[in-house]
């Protein structure tokens, strides 16, 4: 099952009503004014019933994509979760415990929307990652039961403002600038993928050039382990998201560094899940907006 969150485009260019659509081989079926998070919280039967009812065809040209879950309960991001990325980072070694930091809903954008480079920085970096959507709540989840709590997977670009990320030991600010967390386009139910989304090729391209190429089998902490560890501290709720980390090749580790600029296009493609594509735009300063 593949689902997308959308908002209609009006003829005058403004946006209209929001909804959910079923994606079958690129053909969209409108399921109506539904929210994926609400459906997941109503139980897996509610999701199956909504898909079973179907609806009219939806023209992809008549919609814009929203973040897959526009208002997730928690977004937990994982740092340094690939051996090769840990090696290229300032920290060098693989951690004994996953680095976990939050993303907030105000930072999220959908497929096709612009990732915004803030006026405060010229260090906007790319990070292609697998996103895990929780479908069953739990606390103290055993690792061998953890994957039963997964509803599905998606693609995430954890675009980072590097100079702000490294201003302190706490990464939260550099990971939460507005319009930097691209999420989507498809929700892919867990039954369509290998257990734990393991063994999937992950590739990030900037202006068509491959800048990251990895495989989810190379995670230091796999999906089941991340769910189990996170649930030791907090209850994972339905609709929470775990963003599982990025492989090597990020821009700040390159010599010279490679950061995203206005007019660039960044794509993250994950085997079996899909391709997330976003243009890059400079933030318009407040004084220009007010003029």
From TrEMBL:
Keywords: Hydrolase, Metal-binding. SUPFAM superfamilies: FAH (SSF56529). Residues 1-21 are annotated as: Disordered. Residues 74-280 form the Fumarylacetoacetase-like C-terminal domain. Signal peptide: none annotated. One of its GO terms (molecular function) is hydrolase activity. One of its GO terms (biological process) is carboxylic acid metabolic process. The keyword Metal-binding applies. Belongs to the FAH family. This is Fumarylacetoacetate hydrolase family protein.
């Amino acid at each position: 099952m593949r689902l997308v969150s959308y908002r209609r485009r009006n003829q005058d260019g403004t946006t209209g009503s929001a909804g959910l659509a079923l994606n079958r081989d690129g053909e969209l079926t409108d399921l109506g004014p539904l929210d994926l998070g609400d459906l997941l919280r109503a139980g897996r039967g509610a999701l199956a019933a909504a898909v079973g009812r179907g609806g009219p065809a939806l023209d992809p040209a008549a919609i814009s994509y929203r973040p897959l879950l526009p208002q997730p309960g928690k977004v937990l991001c994982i740092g340094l979760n690939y051996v090769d990325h840990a090696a290229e980072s300032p920290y060098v070694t693989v951690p004994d415990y996953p680095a976990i930091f939050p993303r907030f809903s105000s930072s999220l954008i959908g497929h096709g929307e612009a990732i915004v480079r803030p006026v405060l920085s010229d260090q906007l970096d790319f990070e292609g990652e697998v996103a895990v959507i929780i479908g069953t709540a739990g606390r103290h989840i055993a690792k061998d039961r953890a994957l039963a709590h997964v509803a599905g997977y998606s693609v995430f670009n954890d675009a980072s403002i590097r100079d702000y990320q490294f201003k302190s030991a706490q990464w939260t600010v550099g990971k939460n600038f507005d319009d930097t967390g691209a999420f989507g386009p498809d929700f892919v139910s867990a039954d369509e993928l290998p257990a734990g989304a393991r063994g999937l090729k992950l590739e990030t391209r900037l202006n068509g050039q491959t800048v990251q190429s990895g495989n989810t089998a190379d995670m230091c902490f796999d999906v089941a382990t991340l769910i189990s560890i996170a649930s030791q501290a907090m209850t994972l709720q339905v609709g929470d998201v775990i963003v599982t980390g990025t492989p090597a090749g990020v821009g700040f580790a390159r010599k010279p560094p490679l950061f995203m600029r206005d007019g660039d296009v960044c794509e993250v493609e994950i085997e079996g899940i899909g391709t997330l594509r976003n243009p890059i735009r400079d933030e318009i300063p407040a004084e220009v907006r007010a003029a």
